[in-house]
Amino acid sequence: MNWPANPSTCGADLEKTILDSSGPRVWQTWLLGSEVMVPNGSKPSAWCPDSRTKETQTFNDRDTLLSVGGVLIDQNGRFSRHETRLNEDVYNYLVTNNLWNKAGQRNARIDMPTGPKDLLCDGQCCGSTGAIMVKASWKVLGANDDTSRFYTLQADLLDASQPALLGLVGLHIAHKTPTQKKWIWASFEHVDNVTKLFNNPRCPQTPAYNPNAPVPCTQTCCPPNSQTAAKDPKTNTYVELSPAGEPLNRPTQVTRVLPISNALVNKQFQTLLKGSVWENYELVSTQWVDHRGNITPEFAANTTLETFDQGPDSPTHGKLPYKPFSTHVSSSCMKCHATATNSAGGSADFSFILSTAR
Length: 358
Ligand code: HEC
Fold this sequence. Notes:
Bound molecules: heme C
Helix content: 10-25%
Order of helices and strands: EEHEHEEHHEEEEEEHHEEH
Mean pLDDT: 88
Distance between the termini: 29 Å
Largest sheet: 9 strands, mixed
Strand content: 15-25%
Structural class: alpha+beta
Number of helices: 7
Low-confidence stretches: none
């Protein structure tokens, strides 16, 4: 799915290699959640429309809000952005069963497809892979950012006066398979996230993670993983730039709370990916259910997507993400996604996409 795409088939372009750093990747040709969950009266986009080849992607203000704790602000004072995309199996399931709109979800039991048990069907690639959802996070590339270290995307930011070049900083992948019905939850990040892009190494790393940091943070150096911006009381939204286009907020001081345990695997893959931008990315964690039925690892978080609820304590700001949430029960992809409901309040099979139906 991270292979360069052939935009006319929305599959992998096998004439290119993974080391080719130009876009789009296969997952970028998948449909955005908002292109499937369209207002009633209109129809979801067709799969693999011609517009896939269009090079500039539009983000809106809502795409700056993390699921817990508000906005994430990089060292240049710019907000991060994120997007959600659905693979063809999810798309077909939602469209065939009329689950892309509120009326169709009434009384529905959501059970996304798992795909085939084996990798090959009759010696050939099976057409389906099971449901996959991705959530990607991006930062605006600006002063002090070495663009050659990033996988990039041309974007229009609706709240900004300028088109922007974005760099990929995080990628969540959730995949439902026949043996992992609670999905497998993997997350990747840019290797510079907590040393440079979202962290000022000159700031003292103390005080340690402080759930009671004031909002907005008033100290010279913010306590790690605390919100530095306050909402505009008039509009109840975070404001990124002044009318003159100057960043208004101080950077979030992000630190990693849950250590990365797979350093060796990352080294091996980074060696294989040498010479491409992908050598600057790493696997943070993969959460799944082991043979005894336990969620393993218990916790997993991406510093650019679960910045404020990495744990082990309650999130610094915002409501508790799921129940029961206690100290020592911090960020868990599976536990939080298990609380997702559809637009009628019923089942959602771990996907928050259903609740966005209109
Ligand atoms: C505290 C709750 C919480 C945790 C923990 C969490 N997520 Fe999510 N996630 C959400 C919410 C809410 C959304 C939908 C809104 C949004 O995109 O911000 C979402 C969206 C997603 C999506 C897009 C599909 C969808 O369901 O909307 C993926 C994929 C995803 N998360 C993967 C992960 C992975 C992987 C992890 C763990 C490393 C994780 N999430 C941890 C709350 C959470």
